């Protein structure tokens, strides 16, 4: 199994790749990281899969993550054949997925049948469209408050994954479980992947969701690097008020994440995994200090060294929040088609123009 770099090695290994990212000295476009977006970023537009592929081509991105199955107008083989042909013609790499596959989670919906049937169906879609992954997740932070905590949910998710193990291996498709909405830290997600089997289960890494489990995005990537097969990326401002720490999601470049540092590690560990923008700007989650026993009894899995690293991000974040608040929009605007579209396109431009990411001119 690949080794995981410690923090010192993580920073040291970034020097050369950071310079490459910022200077644009890649010899060819094929050396660059692939850029794309998750359709959840623009869910208010209610585009179907065909329209999303056309939009991805218009934006000149490399990849598209269809992260839910509501975007498909049909599940007939002929429909998927045409959809795949459209993506190939537009030179768009597809990743596909669905929502919760954990039958005991508060997030699970039985729209597609049992969890096993659901994951089987999502796997069929991935196979039909040539996706290397099925992006999915366990649940959300609400599952931490279950009577027995996360453990029963973790076991249930592993069992559902094992129900498609042979099929996934034969198809060469990985079940890509996301650290989602405050459910799993990187350390716990690693445990889940290793228990299910890393030869057919991997990670959909989400930099924003890392901050919602009190992890720095850098530590989250450091821990998950050997398992990353898909992604959901957004910026964050980690800031403090009194003893509480909050994480606010932003468009790329509006937060405080050191993206050259972050993507330098990405370049070394998983250079062919697309960087999917999943922009969900303006949402904030707050955390009381470890002295708040009632809150922290649901977060016993949090590594205190990881928490302290997360906490150090507030120094930069408190300053950044002042300028960010000057451009902050009314909360109801966060969910409009116009705002979502503008935030996504702004983030893609930042990645292309500032970070030199993306293989298409």
Describe, in plain words, how this protein is organized in 3D.
With 361 residues, this protein is α/β, with parallel strands linked by helices. The chain has a single domain (7-235, 257-279, 336-353), classed as Divalent-metal-dependent TIM barrel enzymes (TIM Barrel), CATH 3.20.20.150. Helix content is 42%, strand content 16%. It has 15 helices and 11 strands. It has helices at residues 7-12, 14-23, 49-58, 77-89, 115-129, 151-162, 165-171, 186-196, 207-211, 217-224, 259-269, 293-296, 304-312, 314-326, 337-353; strands at residues 35-38, 63-66, 93-100, 133-137, 174-178, 201-206, 228-232, 235-241, 244-250, 275-277, 284-287. The chain has an 8-stranded parallel β-sheet. Helix 8 (186-196) packs parallel to helix 10 and helix 10 (217-224) runs parallel beside helix 11 (259-269). Mean pLDDT is 93; it is low at 1-27.
Tell me briefly what this model is.
With 361 residues, the protein is α/β, with parallel strands linked by helices.
List keywords for this structure.
alpha/beta, 15 helices, single chain, 16% strand, 361 residues, three-stranded antiparallel sheet, eight-stranded parallel sheet
